[in-house]
Amino acid sequence: MAIDSYRITGAALAMTTLLAPGGAAIATNAASSLTMALLILLSVSTLLGWWLNGRAGMPLRVMAAMPAALALAVLVLLTLSFLLPVERFDYDFWSSLFAHWPIDTPFYIQRPALPLLLAMLLLALLQFPPGRGGASGALLIVLSLILTVVYLINESNQLLHEHSSAFYALLPALLLLLAIEAHQRRQLLHNRAVQLALAPPLAVLLLVLLLWENFSEQHIQRLSQVAAIESETLTTRLHREVAIFNDAIHRFANGWDSTGTEPDTRQWQHRAAALVGDFYYLRDIAWISWRSHHIERFYPVTRWPNATNQQWLADKAFDALDNESPSDSAATTLTQRLSNRRLMLYRPVVDLDNGRQLGAIAFAVSPTLLLESVFQPLYSNDFLVRVTFDDQLIYRLETADGLSSLRRCSPLMLADSRFTMCIEATYARLFIERHSTPSNMLLVGLIIAWLLYMLTWYYLGLRNRFSGVQYRNHQLRNRVRDEDARRRKAEWGAHHDALTGLLNRRGFGEWVALNGLKPPLTLMVIDIDHFKQVNDRLGHTVGDDYLRRVTDTLNALIVKRGGLLARYGGEEFIACLPDTDIVEAETIGEVLRHRIEAMALPHHKRRGVVTVSIGMVTARREGEHLEALFSLADQALYRAKQQGRNRVDRWHWH
Ligand SMILES: Nc1nc2c(ncn2[C@@H]2O[C@H](COP(=O)(O)OP(=O)(O)OP(=O)(O)O)[C@@H](O)[C@H]2O)c(=O)[nH]1
């Protein structure tokens, strides 16, 4: 029994899907649950087909293909979501279409990565006989492997990495299928038709890969530029906000610079509340006294730090103040990072009259809230923003369908702390860009290559069949023509004399029956004299030759006179001369006799040359019988022979 490669691959696919280390991860990862479901459908279909192969009738085998058909329908839909124009079928359209999917994750996360999608699509197509045109199966697998490898070497592609466990399940199946195909099709690849059909798609493939390489580079650059502009906008906005905030805290501290006294409780509460009201990312404000080296005032009082913290805050503040040169101290805001959750800013307060330091004001800022207050109003669907400090996530601005394939990171300075801001294109952004994504071009190119192969293959098949039909038609036409020629030859042979080409007795009889013997008409019987002697002395070959030459001479004149000559038997001819009376006929007879004599065909008899005797009769009325007239002409001939031959005689009507 022939190996059914597709069924075996189905088994491999099922095994790897279920047993691959990534299998469990896929099953629990909601992002890949659709991929997993599709892989299971394909596996079930191929396994069922394998099990039923040869055992069941058509209806059951069709049922076995049903899971593959279902998977194919979903895969086609998903492929369309990459290819259909975004103006007509936008993000919301596809999201609403997949809204009823039982798993509660957005459509974009459900969608398998493009290469995985194509590989599954091609595998699903292989479940159906029309997908197996010639080396089509092998080509499909090669195409999906190319796409897979191309994606694997493309490190920047996070879409793939997200689904890589599914890939590990699919890859062994594809490789196995390729090995079986290569084994089974070794003969096929030597086939000229297959080579011809493979040439155009392979050329398209090469072109697409070259274009893809180029296009990929451009696409990444373009997206990178867009991300850089986005990053620039956010940074500028952030710096502007920080400048405004700095300005405000300077003004806040300046109030106590000028009074030269430590803040009293009422004043402190009032002004601190106003400042915090303006900047909600400003979480706490503390007054640290130079005199007591302790925190004397705090806002809001509900979050008053414990004693240990107080001391620590104060020490930090005075460390910072000690490092400041006295001339700068009034103008500069001192900053120090307290933790990744809080950014501390210190501002010394000095008595302007005597330059004595009164203390410092500490401002605790939440970087997360600061970033939120700046970035939230600038929120766009196109990019998500992540800010990290020492690899810890500080802030994240994104929609539910987050992650994408492009990330651009740059340093972000907040006070004297260095944060990292990463901008990533979102799925929504890629959705808008989907027409220009290199993957789409690759997908379309590969599908075109495969379609081209199928078209060329079927065209070549049709052409072969057509030329077969043409050949059979040609043979048939030749047979009909030969048959016709044979029939016409037989017909001709029945009415003609083969030696001279004249009508024979039968042919002549039919001619007369058709045309009638209408007077005036003369019937002539012409006989070669002593012809037997020619045969006897000179041989039959010469006799035949004499017969032909005599025929030519007689026929030339008789036809010229509108008559008809036939060979009536042996060396005897009969001529019918319409519209010729006996007088004219006798003249013609004489001319004929003379011409034959003048041919001077050697004869041993008295005269030394071949001669003819002619007997003739004229029809008197219409409807005369040929045989009767012939008999009369023959009697005249007989008389001519009797009278010495080389003569013309006629029947005399009484
Ligand atoms: N070579 C050749 N001889 C033929 C053909 N048909 C008939 N003959 C010969 O024609 C001869 C006719 O001979 P006869 O009927 O005795 O008459 P003849 O010798 O012509 O003598 P007369 O008619 O009395 O002058 C025979 O010897 C036939 O064999 C033919 O097609 N080819």
From TrEMBL:
<feature type="transmembrane region" description="Helical">
    <location>
        <begin position="34"/>
        <end position="52"/>
    </location>
</feature>
<feature type="transmembrane region" description="Helical">
    <location>
        <begin position="165"/>
        <end position="182"/>
    </location>
</feature>
<keyword id="KW-1133">Transmembrane helix</keyword>
<protein>
    <recommendedName>
        <fullName>diguanylate cyclase</fullName>
        <ecNumber>2.7.7.65</ecNumber>
    </recommendedName>
</protein>
<feature type="domain" description="GGDEF">
    <location>
        <begin position="519"/>
        <end position="653"/>
    </location>
</feature>
<dbReference type="InterPro" id="IPR029787">
    <property type="entry name" value="Nucleotide_cyclase"/>
</dbReference>
<dbReference type="InterPro" id="IPR000160">
    <property type="entry name" value="GGDEF_dom"/>
</dbReference>
<feature type="transmembrane region" description="Helical">
    <location>
        <begin position="194"/>
        <end position="212"/>
    </location>
</feature>
<feature type="transmembrane region" description="Helical">
    <location>
        <begin position="64"/>
        <end position="86"/>
    </location>
</feature>
<keyword id="KW-0812">Transmembrane</keyword>
<dbReference type="Pfam" id="PF00990">
    <property type="entry name" value="GGDEF"/>
</dbReference>
<dbReference type="InterPro" id="IPR043128">
    <property type="entry name" value="Rev_trsase/Diguanyl_cyclase"/>
</dbReference>
<feature type="transmembrane region" description="Helical">
    <location>
        <begin position="441"/>
        <end position="460"/>
    </location>
</feature>
<dbReference type="InterPro" id="IPR050469">
    <property type="entry name" value="Diguanylate_Cyclase"/>
</dbReference>
<feature type="transmembrane region" description="Helical">
    <location>
        <begin position="106"/>
        <end position="126"/>
    </location>
</feature>
<keyword id="KW-0472">Membrane</keyword>
<feature type="transmembrane region" description="Helical">
    <location>
        <begin position="133"/>
        <end position="153"/>
    </location>
</feature>
